[in-house]
Amino acid sequence: MNLEQLLEKTKNVRLVAASKYVNADIIKEFYYKGISEFGENQVKALSEKKELLKDENLMIKWHFIGTLQSNKINLLIKQRPILWQSCNSLNLAKAVDKRLDYTLDTLLEINSAFEGSKSGIEPSRALEEYLQIKEECKNLNLQGVMCIGTHSDDEKAIQKSFETTYQIYEKLQKHDAKICSMGMSSDFELALKCGSNMLRLGSILFKSP
Predict the structure, then answer these.
(1) Which of 12, 27, 134, 208 is the most buried (most CB within 10 A)?
(2) What SS3 state is found at 106?
(3) Residue 75: in which H helix or E strand, if any?
(4) What is the CATH number of the domain that holds 31?
(5) Contact 147, 188 (CB under 8 A)
(6) Cα-based distances in Å from 173 to 43, 144, 145, 154, 168
(7) What are the distances in angstroms from CA 167 to CA 149, 150, 160, 174, 194?
(8) Which helix (H) or strand (E) holds 96?
(9) CA gap 24, 10 in Å, rounded
(10) Where would I find the Alanine racemase N-terminal domain in this sequence (predicted)?
């Protein structure tokens, strides 16, 4: 799939380029190809790439999509990302909230794959914890949910994890949830079928001819 086909296929959703494995020059190149939202997994990498591109007058919208370590909270806040996609607990939400001096748009990460290797809140607790964060963390503006699909060759298992997340998102829409961030390079088409309105694409995007 070339870049033009990929952009056409994803034209009705927000596309976040997961730029973990590419440098600032590649980010700049893809910005001029029409992609303005980029997501980084590590706060240090986000900081470094943002710094390298600061004089380019690019209107890049940075997302943080990785697991946030408590010792990197201050550095993340300094970057002012447009969206923190990976809030994975009430405790972490409170730790970030109390240090913020601005409003940070945030997604609740849900471990709908039930995999120990993934972070995120268990689906059974997601609704309650979302509303608790919304109530107690006034500097976090919860915008919806995020998940990583099941790591499996079984398409039905992946689909189930997306459907679980989407069902939670549906329940949260009456609480102003607007974003359901699901789908990466290997499973984004399935995520779209399950209702995703934000994709995080890395390898398929940067390897597109």
Answers:
(1) 27
(2) strand
(3) helix 73-79
(4) 3.20.20.10
(5) no
(6) 29, 8, 10, 29, 9
(7) 14, 16, 10, 13, 10
(8) helix 90-97
(9) 23
(10) 2-207
Q: What range does the domain containing 51 cover? A: 3-206
pLDDT of res. 151? 87
Nearest to 179 by CA among 1, 39, 2, 5: 39
Please report, in tens digits, the pLDDT of each residue of the chain (209 residues total).
Answer: 899 999 999 999 999 999 999 999 999 999 999 999 999 999 999 999 999 999 999 999 999 999 999 999 999 999 999 999 999 999 999 999 999 999 999 999 999 988 777 789 999 999 999 999 999 999 999 999 999 999 888 999 999 999 999 999 999 999 999 999 999 999 999 999 999 999 999 999 998 77
Residue with tokens 């959703």: 13
Distance CA 59, CA 9 (A): 23
**Who contacts 157 (Cβ-Cβ below 8 Å, separation ≥6)?**
150
Residue with token string 């995999």: 115
Backbone dihedral angles phi then psi of residue 115, each to the nearest 5 degrees: -110, 130
Helix (H, G, I), strand (E, B) or coil at 122: coil
Q: What pLDDT is recorded for position 206?
A: 94
What is the β-pairing status of strands 104-109 and 83-87? parallel
pTM above 0.85, yes or no: yes
Structural domain count, the chain:
1
State the DSSP code for 22.
S
